[in-house]
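Lab meeting notes turned into a lecture example. A postdoc, R.K., suggested we walk through two folding results consecutively so the class can see how the record format repeats. The first protein's sequence and structure tokens come next.
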Amino acid sequence: MKRDLVTCIRTTKKVFQKKSAQVLVKSGAASCQAKLFYNYRVLSYFLTIKIAFMETLVRYGQTVNKIYDAFSRGDIGFIISTLHRDVIWEVMGQPDIPFAGIYHGPDDVKLFFKKLADSSSFKEMVPEHILENGNLVIATGYAKGTALKTQKLLASIWSMIYEFNDDGKIVHFRDCYDTLAFSKAYGK
């Protein structure tokens, strides 16, 4: 029994190394070949299902990743195109932070990006993790830039939460970052 198992393992190694099931037939391990072929078919079927399922799972995460790419290119139009018409866009912060507030709808979110561009210059906006769970995506990362009015450094780690509807549109966004540091940079 042990010898059959060792033969099967060695033969299996050869198959995967040479990527050919013919090696098993030549080695005389026909029963091992049948088991291996059956296990390969089951594994192949399972992986096909898993890959299809994973593509569905990362759908919203891919959209969020594309949003960060668009932001780095200055393509605000793409970001706006991902929003539902009734989106709620929340950006934390004290009154000293020019772009802080709650925005309703894509036109209002355009105003947020205008305020952001008029008050800040970001050199880095780096997502480090994008995690998806159902229709929620949480992204974490860091940002570095300059407050244009004061020329002070803006630097913070951040967490952004996106909620999607079934049509793949963002219905709620919340941005959390070091509001005290940003307030000091924008302040007098």
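The second example is placed directly after the first for contrast:
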Amino acid sequence: MAFDSGNKKECSDKKQNEKSYKGKNMIIKPSIQWLNTDSDALFINDTSVILLGMANNTSIYATPSPTLPVVQAALDDFSAGVAATADGGPSATSKKTNLRLILAGLLRQLASYVAVACKGDMTNLLLSGFPVQKPVRTPIGALPAPQNLTVTHGMLSGELDAKVNPVFGASTYNWTCTPNTPGAVQQTAQTTASSYAFNGLTPGVSYTITTNAVGAAGPSKWSSPVSQFAD
């Protein structure tokens, strides 16, 4: 399982979060409240954030228990279960609920591992992707702009596949695809996943793509733009 590494902006955000906790008498441990309160789409997104964070920081989290592939497999099963409820009836809904319970159980075990492996260090905990358990629980504030946007050619002609690191607390992502030609019409989209495939593009034309994340406090700032020629 391969993930893109974080960048300096993410490190800056994490350091800022760390500063906000200095001077507070608290036990540094991951929060698991979200396991019960997230919608299915947000649950998938936030689990992906944790898998990405831990995969990018194996020097801190060298021996996760359960292993990341086990959690990824449970996430894939749950995601498929959610998709099946679109027209699967009560039995599909029941199966999806059970798959969520399995994934949540694995994440609780993983949170226990992180609580020990982070060694009481706030920066280490934030790098895991887990949110911090606060003495007084408050809603997640404004989200950071999504990082590491990549745009690649799709399987079909005129298709560009955009992907960004998931943002914890993001319920949806807004996307724009703007042709770099005068008077051209911009394409927009909204997804619950941190990826989107733009199709029907004109081969040989350059397109600039951006995305932002939307949480309880509203939309984040837009990501850095990435340009790519359609083929």
